[in-house]
Every structure is written in structure tokens, then in C-alpha cells.
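Second attempt. The first submission of Catalase had a stray character pasted in from the spreadsheet, which I only caught after the job came back as garbage. Lesson logged: always re-copy from the clean sequence file. Corrected sequence (486 aa) follows.
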Amino acid sequence: MSSNNNNNLTTSWGAPVGDNQNSMTAGDRGPTLLQDVHLLEKLAHFNRERVPERVVHAKGAGAHGYFEVTQDLTQYTKADFLSEVGKRTPLFIRFSTVAGELGSADTVRDPRGFAVKFYTEEGNYDLVGNNTPVFFVRDAIKFPDFIHTQKRDPQTHLKNPNAVWDFWSLSPESLHQVTILMSDRGIPATLRHMHGFGSHTFKWVNAEGNAVWVKYHFKTEQGIKNLAPDLAAKIAGENPDFHTEDLFNAIDKGDFPAWKLYVQIMPIEDANTYRFDPFDVTKVWSQKDYPLIEVGRMVLDRNPENYFAEVEQVTFSPGSFVPGIEASPDKLLQGRLFAYGDAHRHRVGPNHNSLPINRPKVEVKNYQRDGGMALGNNGGSGAYYEPNSLGGPKEAPQYKTSPFEVSGNADSVSYNSDDHYTQPGNLYRLMSEEERTRLVQNIVGAMTPVENNDIKLRQIVHFYKADSELGQRVASGLGLSVPGGL
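This time the job returned cleanly.
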């Protein structure tokens, strides 16, 4: 009798399983027989159920939703999903902490990843940012070293504040992000009560080929809410999955979180004269110079059906562009264009974009073949090289990336601005006295375990250069004095 139309348990190759409670043995006591192929397959699959966790952003939560255009910005970009007011595009978002492992607590002081995959009619567009507008480093060559400081010491297997502050004190460009991280916003109350940012500068190109520079800002409609450190620590011990649970429950009961998307637009030529390098991801653009322009609204209205299939296997890359959106010369972005896709090819497999959560809504046509998990018919008997005379897909010149001017020598150089202090100093001076006090307390608490006073003094100098009061208060809290000569 056919088993196709019933609810029989089957093996991965579709054969019905007769006994899923008892392994096959030689006699009642065994030993177990190697011929029990169902047992072997079950154990072998179990051993492989966990793909390697992400090196960064390992702990995350996700949801499905949609993006709806509310303002016509076709004068700036030809991106199809932004082409008309009212147009809706399905999306998937993943929120995450940066430094912790897959089982770490949600309510730690850490930036939050804010990655959005738009399933557009011209392919997937990934906007892979954080809940902060800046980052710790501005060149991809420093990123592995920075992340090493956030991970565990290779000898003790413990988090190492000496490494954290040693790196930061020797990398003054990190001061702006450190100041944000140590502020109230370093521990959001929930994933729903925080902003999101593309962080990098990107390029928008319109139908006429005219380009502008752009930065993305997602503003939460739920309002900003943060956790006090003592409450965050209490929750971390009692419910380490607090943020994950909150997001799931809110959507499950119909309290759909939403964000308004805004952009800042900079004319191409302004990049040469603006007072900060607009491609330096440790800096922000003044909203007085480049005001926020509304684009649309993002709503999360559906929870994943399966965490592993969707949240764990979803892959994002800043290099997943669509026509009308392109890269800028941002040095950190340039490195991420390679690193993210390469991480997914290692972690999930070379055909990660074929998985349902990553698969574009449009048909994929290319000459990439084979590799692990080559789903579908692997290109069938069609052409497998290009150019060909067999009617295979061809490039479309109208979608070529727009040019931008470059000049100078091929060399390893830094950004031409070493002003790492004006913007974090301005941020401190914008805070209320209560916010300043909490900032200093958080910094002092984080630096107190550092064993080397030279590291502490080096970092104090950075805080002092940003704002003398800030430097003095941090030094006093650590029982030290601001080094002379400042």
C-alpha cells in the first residue's frame, strides 16, 4: 500500500520508518547493528544540525514584514522598490548583539545589528547596519583585530577588558562609538525601542544616471527606551532571551513594531569640501547640513515559523545591491562587500542564496553551478559558460554601476582627518546632566577592571580631548589624574 498520502514518519530519502523508539540490535541486549541505517542517519544528521555560528552577531532575533513607500524620491534613485508612493516590498529583519556567542544574554552593553533584507522585484537588497550611526573602526583591515578584543582571551577563555580598552585607547577613531556605547543607548530596553542605521555612506543613482551620496536612518515609532545597567544585569541572569521573547510576543499578539525610514542626501560634489570626510564611518553628517528626508515605513507583522530555517540561516551582505543603489568609497564598507558573502559561503555554503529565506522573489539566471546544497536542477542541461551562442542569459549594459572619479597613488593610507574628538565631545555636551553622570559611571565601571594604568591614562586623554569635563570626571572616578601637558 502506498504511503504517500498518510502521515508516516520517513527517512530523509522518503522511506517509511517502522520503529523510531528502538535501535536494531543483535539479540535483546545487542550490540547495535551497523545495518540500522535509520539510526545512523538520525545520529549523523544530529551531529551536523548546528552550522558554525556567526563569528560576530551570533545571537539574534528576526521577523518578517513589509516596507511601504510614503514619499516620492525617484529624483534621487531608480531603485524599483522605491519607485512609487504606496508600493509595498516584503522584507525580513534580523536584530543581533555583536560580541556574544549564540547563547549569550540579550541585555548586555553592546551595539545591536539591524539587518534588513528587501525582497524586491529586481533582486534582494540587503541593508546591513547597526542601531548606531557610526562604528569603532573605519578601515576593514582593523576589523578582525577589533573583534578579537571583544571575544574571549585565548588563555583564560574569559572576556578581557584589558584587551578592549588597550585597543580603543590605541585607536582614537573609536571614541565616538565608545561614547554612544557607554551612554544610555548602549542597552536598549527592547529591540522595538531603538533606532537603526545603515551607518555607511551609499550612492543612489536616478534614471538619468545622476548620483548622490546617501545615509539611512530608521526611526522607531515605539520611542526610544533603554535599560539601566543594574536592571539589565538582573534580566540577563533571569531571562537571557528577553529581547528575543519580547519581539516574538509583541508580533504574536498583533502589536506590530514599525519604523519610519529617512535618508540624508548629499550632492556628489560636496564630498570634496565637507568638513568631515563623508565616507568615514566614525563620523556623522550634521542634520542641519543635510536634513532627514522621509522615504517610507517598515512594519514587522509575522514571526518566523522555524528559527533555524529563517533566523539562523538568513544571510545578509552589504554587497547585495539593486539597480539605483551602489557602494561608496567608505573603506570599511569596501571590506564588508567581500567579507560578509565570504562568511556565508563558509558558514552556510556556497549556495546559501538558494535557501528559502534568502531566495530572491525573482528568477535567478547565472552560470554558477555545483557546490554544497546545489538546489533545484543545478542549471539543467543549459549553457554553463558565458559568452555563449546557446541563448543563455546575457549582461544588460543599462544596469552597469555608475562611475565616480578616483585619483592619487595606490598606497596604504588613512583618512585625511584625525579629528576624532569634535563629534564625541558635541555628543557629550548635548546630554543632560543626568545622562552625563550615567555615561561617566558606565565608563568608569567598564574601565575599573583594566589592570594596566597606562591603558587607562591613554583612554582618559581621549575623553579629555573630546571634552575636558568628561576627561576629568572619568579620571576622578578611576582615582587617577589627567596626564599633564593637556
